[in-house]
Amino acid sequence: MRSPDLLRHAWAVASKDLLVEFRSRTAIVSVAVFVVLVFVVFQFGHDPTAVSNFDLAPSILWVTFTFAAILALNRAFQLELENQALEGLLLAPIGRGSIYLGKLIANLAFVATIELIGLPLLALFFNVPVLPCLGPLAATIALATVGFVAVGTLFSAMTVRTRFAELLLPVLLLPFMILPLWWAVLATGRLLASRPLSEVAGWLNMLAVYDVVFVTIALLLFPATVNE
């Protein structure tokens, strides 16, 4: 399939998912409330005299983003399955790669919306300076998010027809998230501490390599995954 057709069909799939979510807003509101509640629990559940906010904030941020993303990824193919439209989507005259890329774009948009909500809340609840490092921090969040959402979209398609898919997806996905989350936490901690960008460049490069490798692998494996 030609690249223009691949991207055009991918955007058609993504825009369909985004339009459905925009009309219902059920998932985005639920996950946004979840993010707020997690920050509230961490705020009242830690002792600031024992561990400083600067040390704790990166881990809290990425734990929150991780579980919010898993909640979002659980819905990636669930809507088609509930409405018995999954077979229709697979029978549509578009390539399997377009379906994967469309779902990936929609999931990235959904998770990015949650992250846009969560980042100001981090600054509000934990009093950490986000604005001075906003550019590099946004790049770190974007690179880490692309990697685990790419893998999560593949696993979401793999588990959607199984029993207890909501439990199986985190079990499969979390091992693949260890490396990107580790690098993201380290980079975020340095950025919030106002360290030079050169100290986080290596982790950003590793996140970029991870993204390229796993997006490519997921794109190649997706047709076999949904054909089973």
Q: How would you characterize the overall build of this protein?
A:
- The protein is 82% helix and 0% strand.
- The chain contains nine helices and no strands.
- The chain is mostly helical and 228 residues long.
- The protein has one domain (3-226).
- Helix 6 packs across helix 9 and helix 7 packs parallel to helix 9 (201-227).
Key phrases:
single chain; 228 residues; mainly alpha; 9 helices; 82% helix; globular
Radius of gyration: 18 Å
First and last CA, distance: 22 Å
Strand content: under 5%
Task: List low-confidence stretches.
Answer: none
Number of strands: 0
Principal-axes shape call: globular
Helix-strand category = mainly alpha
Summarize the biggest pleated sheet.
Answer: none
Order of helices and strands: HHHHHHHHH
The number of helices is 9
In round numbers, the mean pLDDT is 85
Helix fraction by DSSP (H/I, runs of at least 4): over 70%
Oligomer state equals single chain
Q: Can you tell me the number of structural domains?
A: 1
Secondary structure elements and their pairing?
Elements lengths: L2 H22 L1 H20 L7 H21 L4 H5 L3 H6 L4 H31 L7 H26 L5 H28 L8 H27 L1
Helix pairs in contact: 1-6, 2-3, 2-6, 3-6, 3-8, 6-7, 6-9, 7-8, 7-9, 8-9
Q: What is this entry, summarized?
A:
The protein is 82% helix and 0% strand. The protein contains 9 helices and no strands.
